[in-house]
Amino acid sequence: MTSAERPWLAHYAPGVVAEVPAVTESLPRLIERTVKDFPNAVALDFLGAETRYRELGEQIERAAEGLRKLGVQRGDRVALVLPNCPEHIAAFYAVQRLGAVVVEHNPLYTERELRHQFEDHGARFAIVWQKIAQKVLDLPADLEVNTVVSIDITRSLPASKRFAMNLPLKAAREAKDRMWGPLPKGVIPWEKLLANRRISKKHPRPEASDLAVIQYTSGTTGTPKGAMLTHANLVANALQCQAWIPDVKRGSGVVVYAMLPVFHAYGLTLGLTFAMSMGARLVLFPAFDPDLVLAAHKKHPATYLPAVPPIIERLLTRAAEKKVSLRGITLGVSGGMALDTKLIAQWERETGGFLVEGYGLSETSPILMINPLTDERHAGSIGLPVSSTLAKVVSREDHETEQPAGEAGELVVRGPQVFAGYWKRAEETAAVLRDGWFHTGDIAVMDERGFFEIVDRIKELIITGGFNVAPSEVEEAVIALEGVQDAAAVGLPHPHSGEEVVVAVVMQPGAPFDPEAMRATLRENLTPYKVPRRIVQLDELPRNMIGKVLRKKVREQLLQGEDQQA
């Protein structure tokens, strides 16, 4: 595809390059260069507690040596089961320093959800949040998770907040309960890793082509699987983000807010790699809390605020309630779900900055497209392919014939951020990576200017609040409930989260239908955003000729039922 075939290049903001340099360095080199260039700049801001880049570099090197002594070697998978906290960033890069592979996990996952992922990736080492450490220790012995390092995130809080947490007050107890848990037997405190000397400079670093991260995703088929991201993939995506904001220079007081979890692909790149490559102040929030965000905003307004529409909406609402001005936020970037044009107008009116929509997938590190930071930005679209990224729309029938502008088809992409494949799933990798092009499973339209818009999905993923939910995973948990004969999970429109998980069930003859009791049991096996908001009983589920449940028909049936009730 030549430049003439990339109409989007003509609509890039001034200074945005068509290509980023080829990546020749690994993630450890990226952070080492930033530590060298900006040693005294604040790297991490955790509810007011600051860590400078030289301190972060020291922690990474000491933790890497500690992990090496525990037996972590090049290519080993190391599971991280952590919320946003300073130790998460240090642990991520310490693992990378050894040439080992990070596997990110949601710390709110149930034991069942964690077990499925550990069975797949086979990590023997885990670095976990102390509050949920027992959950990892309770994994079946045959998984051989024999080394667990525990992190007490309250140790990283400012002294005043630690003191307040121990006051004999209900609010203090509740705050401590949310963040702290006792140290279980058999785990190694994080502080023990930091008690080591720095790792030897002679210890080999990984190559750019080496595997860096396994990021679990529901992919294009709805079955959770591990997307393999190399060092080159992740560094390239950080460079692509840098290229999109050419007027913002490294070390120039950039502030990035990590309201999104960094275990998620979106939060990982914008928090763990882009922010660190910029020498930015990364403001970490253990979970999204609009009051904490507004408090941080008063001290250090965000240069770069990655979010999803529900977070943007809640932040605007809370700022209005508390009469806090949001002026000073330079750039908001929204992804994960469609961004309402009214929300864009409200945000830009209140902040005086931009709010643009972007698009990406775990398989693409994740950022593929962003709207330009000019008046040419096209509200309602996912924007333009970022530097060094090719994209086209192909026929849904043969998956090859390129569609003309304005015609819908499957979006396929290629670029340095496209993943290496799915962990231990060669057949599924071959189905989506063809001749260097990644088939996204999303139905898109490209206009004559090169702006793309997502209009439908081939895959049956449910996207709620920016998180992907595999219908099959929800259905498996529902069918396991007593009295359930069959189930189909679908996503129905929701004004705040994009979609909500709704399950249609067929009960066994004579079995009682108690949706609240069913949801209560599901909470024990599914992380909260996967638990169905509603469970609806049907007499039967529509199927095709070979007996497969037609989720699209189920969705239409449930939507029709809503219309009739309205």
TrEMBL record:
Domain AMP-binding enzyme C-terminal: 473-548
Gene3D superfamilies tied to this protein: 3.30.300.30, N-terminal domain of ligase-like (3.40.50.12780)
Keywords: Ligase
Listed CDD domains: FC-FACS_FadD_like
Positions of the AMP-dependent synthetase/ligase domain: 32-423
GO terms of molecular function: ligase activity
Protein's UniProt name: Long-chain-fatty-acid--CoA ligase
